[in-house]
Amino acid sequence: MSDEQAAADWWGTAVSRIEPNRIELRGHPVQELIGTIGFGAMVWLMVRGDLPSPSQQRLFEAALVAGVDHGPHAPSIAIARMTATCGVGLNNAMANGVNALGDSHGGAGQQCVELLEEIRVEGAAEPVIARWRSRGVKYLPGFGHRFHTHDPRRDPLLDLVASCVAEGVVPGDHLRAALAVEQAIAPVPMNIDGATAVIYAELGFAAPLARGLFVLSRSVGILAHAWEETQSGRRNKGPMPPSIRPTFR
């Protein structure tokens, strides 16, 4: 085998094929995709390898839309806004914001998919909840919210899932699991992480992709906030306005 072929095999991928005057994404010539599919369908294609049905695309894009932003008090957004005033580019501000999305800020969707999958396999919510709590889990991922008593994103997302279950688009197992958890821990309601976890799980995305897709979604809000902050003219924005910053002696 030649060195050139060895290098080609080493970097071979089903995601894309790039040759002179030729770009294929998951086997589709890029010129056939441009202007014919939306960005949500493109994300699905790149991650999954096929194109979603119209109903799948609508449900998928609803989850992406719902997670784009939750205000400047969210750590990822606050970090991006402060970084944007430090003399760096938007890419640095966005990267810093994205890097704050970890287990306790951005990872609950992945954890909730794992919880719901355990319930789906076991067939009952209560023993799975008890098992998770026995591990020292204080908050079940995807349920409860420090800011909202009822997350306004929950109902429209779950209504869309229920419609897709009725139409046979998704099976409904993870929706039923999530509702069973909500009933078992009432009055603690499902939040955005739980609702989007239901959608991603129902659509067949692996649990780690629930986090990746949330990061992709939240990147839109991070970009918007970072860009807005660059227009303010502030330099080295701190966590508190100058008028209330303590004086250290």
Could you outline the blueprint of secondary structure elements for this entry?
Elements: H1 3-10, E1 16-19, E2 22-25, E3 28-29, H2 30-33, H3 39-48, H4 54-66, H5 75-84, H6 90-99, H7 108-122, H8 125-134, H9 154-166, H10 173-184, H11 192-202, H12 207-230
Antiparallel strand pairs: 1-2, 2-3
Helix pairs in contact: 4-9, 4-11, 4-12, 5-6, 5-12, 6-12, 7-8, 7-10, 7-11, 7-12, 9-11, 10-11
Task: Describe the protein's architecture and organization.
With 249 residues, the protein is mainly alpha-helical. It has two domains: 3-52, no CATH class; 53-239, no CATH class. The chain is 56% helix and 4% strand. It is built from twelve helices and three strands; from the N terminus they run αβββααααααααααα. The chain has helices spanning 3-10, 30-33, 39-48, 54-66, 75-84, 90-99, 108-122, 125-134, 154-166, 173-184, 192-202, 207-230, and strands spanning 16-19, 22-25, 28-29. Strands 1-2-3 form a three-stranded antiparallel beta sheet. α4 (54-66) runs antiparallel to α11 (192-202), α7 (108-122) crosses α8 (125-134) and α9 (154-166) runs parallel beside α11. The radius of gyration is 21 Å and the shape is globular. The chain starts with a helix and ends in a 19-residue tail after the last helix. The mean pLDDT is 94.
